[in-house]
Amino acid sequence: MIINDFVKNFIREHAGDDLSRLLLSASRYPDINIPFVVDQIAARRRIREKLPSWHGIEDLIYPSRLAVEQCSSEQTARYRQRLVGREDIVCDLTGGLGVDSYYFSRKAKEVIYIERFADYAQAAVHNMAVLGAGNIQIRQGDATEMIASLPAPDVFYIDPARRGKENKRLFALSDCEPDLPALLPMLLAKAPKVIAKISPMADIRHTLDLLPQTSSVHVLSVGNECKELLFVIERSSERPVPVYCIDFTTEGEENTFRFTLEEEQEIRLLPARCVQTYLYEPNSSLMKAGAFKSLAVRFDMEKLAVSSHLYTSGRFTDHFPGRVFRVDEVIPFQSKTIKSLSAKYPKANIAVRNFPLSVEELRKQTKIKEGGDIFLFATLLSDCSKVIIAGKKYR
Fold first, then answer.
1. What average pLDDT values come out for the chain (395 residues) when binned by 10 residues?
2. Nearest 5°: phi and psi at 257?
3. DSSP 8-state class, residue 390
4. Of 202, 253, 319, 356, whose CB has the highest number of CB atoms within 10 Å?
5. Under a CB-based contact definition with an 8 Å cutoff, are residues 365 and 357 in contact?
6. How far is CA 366 from CA 335, 340, 360, in A?
7. Structural domains of the chain sorted by starting position, each given as residue range(s) with its CATH number in brackets
């Protein structure tokens, strides 16, 4: 893996090419490792938004496309910096592309990067030198075999691989590699804190049962898409465990909501009797964490129905962590009204919440095209009546 001026210039000139065609034309460029170059171009396209501060650095090497797909985004990696101290020694057991190790190194005293694949580790040696991260030790090998011989760090960081044979996605924590629940006693015997990055598909309550020494949970979403769960595990931890819902908006804002699962379970809510002036849709981190009743109490809103997860109020509630709509009308879901709906709303953004039809089925029935500034929410009210709520985005 070499990035010299000749290769960099070739990558620059072919950055917009069709990559399949470029691969097929490899014989035209005998002095260029075309498969390697194609991977570099594909990786750079992928990190344009994911890792903007790395995107313009031409000397960086990407060992595979998969490494870029699986690496953390810049926003989530920067958030993880908050979970370590300035005097901490952090050991990254699953180094990969090195994004997490790099951002930990910008705050922590020292970082130990461990990676079992030699080409990834070689790329990390090169990249960390390019990035000027001199406080990172690069070690190649199987982390599970190296733990006993490591100097005791302050924090272990682990991001278990969630892909098995034939690149199949894995969701059960015990199926991932390394097996975190099995490895955890050894990690906590060596370090007082473990930070684990978990699939956004994982069930939080079930994972807490598997990781009983969890001291906090962090649900991270970027642009209203849930990206990952972070479990901070410590030798001495107490219940209830705080859950932090963090959403990084496309406008550059950060919305934070803290609650506990015990708090959520104890709340008793009366559902809304009707849809009022404003409609509220929580961001994806809140939806994933299940902060449904806590949200209503905290922001003094009414929940439309037990499973609808939409909220309403007569007066505008500022600082709500999600989207807010001003309601124009509430339309009963009846055959007569549905058939004539497209006459009033030929184009609209349609969403369903706790509703028997999918978005595709609704579009087929209503003949409403996608787009415009109107939003239609098909949902159930507390009396189980089906309605479509029409409105425009207010904030």
1. 86 94 93 93 93 94 91 94 98 96 98 96 97 97 93 96 57 79 95 96 94 96 94 90 95 92 94 95 96 95 94 94 96 89 95 95 94 96 95 92
2. -140, 130
3. E
4. 202
5. yes
6. 10, 8, 10
7. 5-62 (1.10.10), 70-261 (3.40.50.150), 267-393 (3.30.2130)
